[in-house]
Structures are given as C-alpha cells and as structure tokens.
Amino acid sequence: MKDLLNKAKQTKIIFFDIDDTLRVKNTGYMPDSIPRVFELLRKKGILTGIATGRNFYGVLPEIKALNPDFFVTANGAYVIDSSDQLIYNNPLPKSTVASILSWLKNCDSDYVFYGSDNVVASSWNEVVAQAISPIYGELSVNPDYHDIHDIYQVLSLSDHDDQLVLPDELVNKVRQVRWHPHSSDIVPIAGSKADGVSRVLKQLGLSPENVMNFGDELNDLELFEFGGISVAMKVSHPAILASADYVTDSVENDGIEKALKTLALI
C-alpha cells in the first residue's frame, strides 16, 4: 500500500467510467458522495474526466452536472473539453461502416449507430431493448442513419452475439468488445478509451503516470493497462479485477469516495 500511496501522489487527472462506476446502470442510482468527490478534487486542483463507451449524446445530465474537465466518449473516438472544444475526432470510414453492416445483416444481427450527438437503432425489438433500454431508453429507428452522419461506433445486437466472428475484410480495421450478452461494441482496431485519454494528456503536457482511472468493464481494459493507477469497482469483469492496482467497494457503497480517501486524494 505504501508504494501505491506514493504513486498516487503523482495523480493530476482522474477519469471515471459511467455505468456501474459513477452510477448503477440498471437503476440509475448515483450516490450523494459522487458530487462531493468531484467538488473535493476540484478544490485540490485535480482535473477530472469521463471515459465512457457512451457517445456524448448518451452522457447523462447528472454526469454533465458534475462539471468534469474532459469527456472521452464513444470508447475514445470523440473527445471534447468542458467548453465543448473538440480535442479528437475519429469516425469510422464510410467504407468500413458499410462492410460492418453487410456482415451484421448476413449474420442476422441488428445494430445500433453511435453518432456524435445521437444513438439510432436499425430496429427495436425485445433483444435490442434488453441491452439498450437501461442505458438510453427506447431509441429512434433508422437503419440508414449512416448515409448522412458520421459513425463513431457500431453495436451488434442479437441473441447469438457471442457467435459473431469478424470477416477477414474487417479484422485489421475494427475489433469487438463485448459488454452485454446480446451486444458488442465494434470500434476502430486502435480505438480505445486509452487512445482518447492519451489525446487529453498530450494537450495538457501530462504523462500516463499522472492518470488515475475508475472502471468495471472490458472496454476499460486498455485504459487500465495504459499507466498510472487503475481502480476497479467491486463488481467488475474478472479481467478488470485482475488488471487493477486497487479494488474498491460498489457504487451503492460509495466505492469511489472510499478509494480516493484510502489513496489520500481527498
């Protein structure tokens, strides 16, 4: 613990996942300790950021109300600061989106588009609703949304999502990150929260050792391996628990506040 406390002294910015980290995904519960934590960090001069698989449209009002300094969204593909200034923008090429949709249609899979300011489904049914409703509610439906909008991420949606295998034409362009039994994020091959966070650090003149991050799911893995200190929530994916420098309590039990107190940051 002494080594970890010494390492924590280098922390200048902390990134937080949203679902099951800042708030409970299925209920929307966010403890009163979260706004308090953000205010205490601000008073200590420690910057804060959101690092999420959601696009900016999906960052909830209560999360924006925390006034974080940066938003790393769509798994690192769209990054802005608190003044809405664009830091990084990496939509999927149109040809890649077309190939993804062709593959998913051939696999009898529905899909969801992440634009910069909207989330749109190819159709709305029970399988799609089970995965998406706890996060976004019911989505508008437009299977051709990609024709006139930039797409930062595509989600596959089906009751056989675990059987989907990328075709050869896509394996060097995108990768799958499963986040739900019925769904996977389909993101650029080099895209990740770590990539988006690195763009913020470059702008600030900071190094990975200056970062702390909190998360719980597989799309946090690259960020956990990126550097600095990684804190896993108690109920996290086994790979995240194995990669974490420290494991804290659950959202409901003020895990973030407890970790930051233990690490002497608040």
UniProtKB/TrEMBL annotation:
Alphabetical list of InterPro entries matching this protein: Cof (IPR000150), HAD-like_sf (IPR036412), HAD-SF_hydro_IIB (IPR006379), HAD_sf (IPR023214)
Origin: domain of life: Bacteria
One family name in Pfam for this protein: Hydrolase_3
Tagged with keyword Hydrolase: yes
Keyword Lyase: no
GO cellular component: a single term: cytosol
GO MF annotation, one: phosphatase activity
Keyword line: Hydrolase
Protein's UniProt name: Hydrolase
